[in-house]
Design a protein that fits this description.
The protein is an alpha/beta fold and 352 residues long. Helices cover 45% and strands 14% of the residues. The structure holds iron/sulfur cluster.
Amino acid sequence: MSTEEIINRAARGEETDLDDIVALLSSKGAEAERVMEAARGVRDRMFGNKTFIYGFVYFSTYCRNDCAFCYYRRTNSLRRYRKSEDEIVMLSASLRDAGINLVDLTMGEDPVMCADGHKAMRDVVRRVKEEVGIAVMASPGAMDRESFRPMSEAGADWFACYQETYNRGLFSKLRLEQDFDRRFNQKIWAREAGMLTEDGMMVGLGETVRDRAEAILGMGAAGCEQIRAMTFVPQKGTPMSGTDASASDDELISIAVMRLLYPDRLIPASLDVEGIAGLRTRLDAGANVITSIVPPKMDLAGVAQHELDIDNGHRSVDHVLEMLDSMGRKAASCGEYNETVARMKSKVRIGD
Ligand code: SF4
């Protein structure tokens, strides 16, 4: 089947199989452009020219895990920080005032914040929800099943936990000493507790195109309301520091294919890979959320690019709004975003 035929099948909502997805992901040049053009059309039909914008507060860079790809793995020696509750509330409020729709409260698996069923993390979520009054995404890594209901009750609208790959062999080489099924179940347990979920895959970690296709199908089948692809950036001091960095083409075509297959999902354009320079290409591939907006001069880090474009203010809300404007796109209001969240939440079946 030709690329055009597969695009048309997807546009009609007909099932596409693994081989179709591999074919789309393998498209290059003019064919890849055509896939992205179709993805933009799908995005614009579903969401108009509105783009959601998320602030990112990476409030603790301590972590008990040792993921092979990650700068913040416990065995890497670096200066770490943990923000206080008051600081996190202040940072979230300043992002809200600047115009974001959601604040993503992210940490490594910090033993202090994870203790006692993630009580400290939950307290942060509760204070941000009550005092800042904005949609909240909790990104604390993996939690025990019993911690999900209290996290939802504390006010987390979303729970994010990226699998990175659905290839179990590759997973075991990347997320050392971690269990694939426990991580996958994070999304199931979060939905049972009434939260929306985000999953993500990393591109350029040694996976095949088929692995990427399987990850896209896996994330879609898990029902995650937000799904993402991000290019791996080799990190200093890690076992993968010598890996060749990939161009972003595979990430862009992955975004487009996710959009074609799952028209109503939220798909981020992350500033964490190429900074502001990579925003336009990701939106042109069909993304409808801008993530990893970090306020400047607050001594906060990103994940893949811990400094890129932060202190020069290019990852600030004002700069992103200017970029959106130049592309003829508009930032959604919080009211519009909250309506989208409420509509998605009405479809989540809370477990007993
Ligand atoms: S990816 Fe997350 S869990 Fe793994 S080492 Fe980094 S911060 Fe920790």
